[in-house]
Amino acid sequence: MRIEIICTGDEVLTGKIVNTNFSYMSQKLEDVGLSVHWGTTVGDDRESLLQAFQLAAQRADAVIVNGGLGPTVDDLSQEIAAQAAGVELVLNEEWLVTMEDFFTKRSRIMPANNRKQAMLPSTAEVIDNPIGTACGFAMDIGRARFFFTPGVPRELRRMLEQQVIPRLLARSGSPVTIHLKRFHSYGLGESHVDSLLTGVEELVPDGSVKLGFRAHYPQLETKLVVRGADADDVQRKLRPVQAEVRKRLGNFIMAEDDQTLEGVVLAGLTELRATLALVETFTSGQIAGRIGHLPGAEHVLRRGVVVRDRAELHQALGLRDVMLTGELTQDATEAVARAARTHASATHALAVLIDLDEGADRIDLGGTIWIAIATEQETVFRRSRILGGRDWVRLGAVELGLDCLRRYLQGLPVVERIDFEKT
Amino acid sequence: MRIEIICTGDEVLTGKIVNTNFSYMSQKLEDVGLSVHWGTTVGDDRESLLQAFQLAAQRADAVIVNGGLGPTVDDLSQEIAAQAAGVELVLNEEWLVTMEDFFTKRSRIMPANNRKQAMLPSTAEVIDNPIGTACGFAMDIGRARFFFTPGVPRELRRMLEQQVIPRLLARSGSPVTIHLKRFHSYGLGESHVDSLLTGVEELVPDGSVKLGFRAHYPQLETKLVVRGADADDVQRKLRPVQAEVRKRLGNFIMAEDDQTLEGVVLAGLTELRATLALVETFTSGQIAGRIGHLPGAEHVLRRGVVVRDRAELHQALGLRDVMLTGELTQDATEAVARAARTHASATHALAVLIDLDEGADRIDLGGTIWIAIATEQETVFRRSRILGGRDWVRLGAVELGLDCLRRYLQGLPVVERIDFEKT
Known about the structure:
Two copies of one chain form a homodimer. Chain A has helices at about 10-15, 20-30, 45-60, 75-85, 95-105, 155-170, 190-195, 230-250, 260-270, 285-290, 310-315, 330-345, 390-410, and strands spanning about 5-10, 35-40, 60-65, 90, 120, 125, 135-140, 145-150, 175-185, 210-215, 220-230, 255, 275-280, 300-305, 350-355, 365-375, 380-385. By secondary structure, chain A is α/β, with parallel strands linked by helices. Chain A has three domains: about 5-170, MoaB/Mog-like domain (Molybdenum Cofactor Biosythetic Enzyme, Chain A, 3-Layer(aba) Sandwich), CATH 3.40.980; about 175-255, Alpha-Beta Plaits (2-Layer Sandwich); about 260-410, Maf protein (Alpha-Beta Complex). The first copy, chain A, has a six-stranded mixed sheet, with helices on both faces. In chain A, strands 14-13-15-16-17 form a five-stranded mixed sheet, sandwiched between helices. In chain A, strand 13, helix 10 (about 285-290) and strand 14 form a beta-alpha-beta unit. The longest helix of chain A is centred in the last third of the chain and has 20 residues, at about 390-410. Chain A is elongated and about 85 Å long. Chains A and B meet through helix 2, strand 2, helix 10, strand 14 and helix 11 of A and helix 2, strand 2, helix 3, helix 10 and strand 14 of B.
């Protein structure tokens, strides 16, 4: 099935906003085994919209149009859809009532211009939007089935996932259940993971499991798209493959599906009824900032300390008899973590200290990252060297620090070589 | 002049990467008074590329193609460009030498497959890429001039700004100098700023100044695009308009052009040879994280303290005789800032404390933000209430805290009502 996406709106065309709706839609379709063949972006302009609809109507089997369903004069999608299909716009009484209810529930009166949102092409099938006034709809134009969706991201997401994708799958002639399984790892590059996972797809010989990746430094997402007759069939196919992925990527998998690294760390600490003290230098609060705002962190994050001159730690942590100037040492790093723990009366402390190379920022500028985790019983240590400029070092240090803590909490080795370090 | 952009590559089409190159290019063209009429996204697929080139060649005056200039087999731009124009691919000896030099300088030998990057359509005009091996080029296809650019963002940016835009401006028949002036503000919404600036464009009666906005909460960017015969003419036109914008937006302008709020704060502190102590709660390090990693911050950021339970501040700051439980007070907030300053031996302290509403996250969940700035001489205070859910409150508090410090350093009132607060 050939699918096209048409994104509409001056804000997207002029680059005033980055078109994340496109990548979101395209990705979601890939995740269920469909693929987008062509993308078009046009402004709020009658001639361009008509031309875009007509071209897609000749080429595609299905077209998703995003945006242009609002109440203002520059929202033109319904009007041009009717024109392209050669049908009339008619008032959809049902949607009008839905909108009036929407406003009543919010103790407001519906403005007159919202009425325009209930004017739909006469051949349109309404697609419900339970969280907004933009009415989604589907209709045939030329040889293609068009799906019109709102530009507001959260309205789009709900409509795409709950209504458009099931309709596309039904049309694609493959009456299957599709499931997406995701693994988030840190420390292995995409090509390395790709080679580690060679052959996992073939564990299900009928080709119904597809492996894919999405890299966003420093994390890598490994995806398995599984097709089956029903949910049980999908689980049966997924089971051996996901077991194999977990086995091969092992300690490097830090989260699965909707989990995040910081969420896993927070959950691990919460489960132990533990409390956390953090010490940061060049990462300057960005480790604390990943955890501290999460719901539940108020019971866990006891204290974070940020300094740019390590000598400040003497006074900040009541730390004596430790050499913090010059090149760091394992002993000094461990002493910092221990002092942070006792000073904040926390059960766990994580110290991430960085010796950044001298000089202006450049692609081969590096940093040495000194990490210690202290508990009442023990202190563990990890050192790493990352190259790639100030931002790269900082991003890597934030992730490495959090991941060391995740490994510690899960009883995994804190020291394990990663692809991004130079040692 | 009708301009189109064609973005190529499976990674962009499948949503594996968000297409920031498109919004970047479109925005840059807007900034010099050009506008993009149509955007197309296609994969690394011969048929789609040829069709996209042919359609644009019929419709547009100028086309920017992004991506597909690499050394691998799925990089097809040169090949399909030659096919669309009906010309041959020929080896460009000059670019081959340039590439060999590129590798030699990096002590590497050029891999054989890079030779493909020097195969250009016979009618191509080479566009230099001083920082990569992808050779840019321009050529006519149909009625349009096509500009082929690399997909790597930093290579694209340099080529677009230094080479493609000047060529487009020359072709657009307006031999003018174009200048973009930007103001960054915090605290006023887009429609409010728009109404405050009514008529500023007309200060230059010939229509050569154009006003625009770009909102990215919590900041708003106000842009003036000025066209003139030369740099002097541009400055002459810009002067009265920018003076008027500065006057009308006044204290709300926190930075101009490439400046950032955190950079302005750091520069202000550096100029005073001042040092800074920070105290954060729900923002949990995100204020420190904006400043602390900047070059020069190592001389300024003395210490940041993050807690989620305010009672922790007693011990963290050696703070006695102040009530920190229950609803906050101005006195307690000011005492925290003073204690943070003396505890870190800093000249300035900024405390941003937040009482977040109880309950699950929701669109009307709010937070009361208590801000104090302490120096040796005085303590100033600001309270604000922001609604909009956990993330909105957190983002607003980070910006408000930094902006209060900016105002204090610039001798402006720290307390001035903003559009985003509910009081």
